[in-house]
């Protein structure tokens, strides 16, 4: 179930960014959000979820889908993208400054870069950075103008 808005309360568009560093929407989508109809909002959500899944896939691989789905029970839908599911489960494990490797092993995940020594929070920051870079690239490709 999607939230009412992708906003996470960290808006960088007020400082001039054309792509928000918080929710990754384009500035004109943030401004126009309350006037969007269901289809327009759905298109924005679909793009954001696709970019987040791609960013997660870039850094993590699912090595045991059954373990991942089991860790998410009963909340996960059977057809939910595994990388979006992995991202949400990692968010649930953030905050305790836990090393990522034991958490990933329990969830049936592996970091693509085997030298990654960090905590779950570090991995989430890398995913967020990749997500932002992909959002900026899409903005620049669609509007043929630098976003930063």
Describe the overall structure.
This protein has 148 residues and is mainly alpha-helical. 54% of the residues lie in helices and 4% in strands. The chain has one domain (13-143). It contains 6 helices and 2 strands. A two-stranded antiparallel sheet has the order 1-2. α2 (38-59) packs across α4 and α2 crosses α6. The longest helix has 24 residues, at 120-143. It is globular. It starts with 26 loop residues before the first helix and ends in a 5-residue tail after the last helix. The mean pLDDT is 92.
Walk me through the topology.
Elements lengths: L26 H6 L5 H22 E3 L2 H8 L9 H12 L6 H8 L1 E3 L8 H24 L5
Helix pairs in contact: 2-4, 2-6, 3-4
Order of strands, main sheet, comes to 1-2
User: Gap between N and C termini, in Å?
Assistant: 32 Å
Number of H/I helices: 6
Principal-axes geometry comes out as: globular
Largest sheet: number of strands, sense, barrel closure:
2 strands, antiparallel
Summed over residues and divided by their number, the pLDDT gives a mean of 92
Helical amount among residues, as a percent range? 40-55%
Q: Tally the structural domains.
A: 1
Stretches where pLDDT is under 50 for at least 5 consecutive residues are none
Number of separate strands: 2
- SSE series: HHEHHHEH
* Global Rg: 16 Å
Which percent range describes the beta-strand content? under 5%
Structural class: mainly alpha
């Amino acid at each position: 179930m999607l939230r009412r808005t992708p906003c996470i309360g960290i808006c960088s568009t007020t400082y001039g960014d054309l792509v928000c560093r918080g929710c990754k929407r384009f500035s004109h989508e943030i401004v126009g959000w309350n006037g969007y109809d269901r289809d327009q909002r759905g298109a924005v959500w679909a793009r954001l979820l696709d970019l987040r899944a791609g960013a997660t896939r870039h850094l993590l691989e699912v090595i045991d889908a059954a373990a991942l789905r089991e860790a998410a029970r009963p909340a996960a839908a059977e057809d939910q993208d595994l990388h979006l599911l992995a991202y949400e489960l990692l968010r649930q494990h953030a905050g305790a400054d836990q090393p990522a490797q034991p958490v990933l092993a329990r969830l049936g995940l592996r970091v693509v870069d085997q030298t990654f020594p960090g905590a779950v929070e570090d991995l989430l920051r890398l995913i967020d950075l990749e997500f932002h870079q992909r959002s900026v690239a899409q903005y620049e490709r669609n509007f043929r103008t630098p976003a930063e």
